[in-house]
Amino acid sequence: QVQLVESGGGLVQPGGSLRLSCAASGSISSIYAMYWYRQAPGKQRELVASMSSSGNTNYGDSVKGRFTISRDNAGNTVYLQMNSLKPEDTAVYYCNFWVGPEFYWGQGIQVTVSS
Fold this sequence. Notes:
The chain is about 0% helix and about 55% strand. It has strands at about 1-5, 10, 20-25, 30-40, 45-50, 55-60, 65-70, 75-80, 90-100, 100-105, 110-115. Strand 9 (about 90-100) and strand 10 form a beta hairpin. By secondary structure, the protein is mostly beta strands. The chain starts with a strand and ends with a strand. The strands form two sheets. Strands 2, 4, 5, 6, 9, 10 and 11 form a seven-stranded mixed sheet that branches. A four-stranded antiparallel sheet has the order 1-3-8-7, with no helix packed on it.
């Protein structure tokens, strides 16, 4: 089993920044990829960013140039640096790790962008 714990969410004004963290623990053998998703009220969950085990990254069109996914040297923690935040970025953000044959989800963390 793998446990994912997210942190760093909260309330921020438009144009501000936040950094989300997601730390993995447990039976971590091979992490194939790491993902950040978000889900706004009344909307489907959408992929925000991803990073493969080799370090390749991809971003959703709505966050390109504003968000950056990264990881620590041990490869067990993934970050999402969010800059130039907009009210439409308001959502619950979830991290997701692809470990072996399974996908694991974090509990979700609220990000609210409002003045």
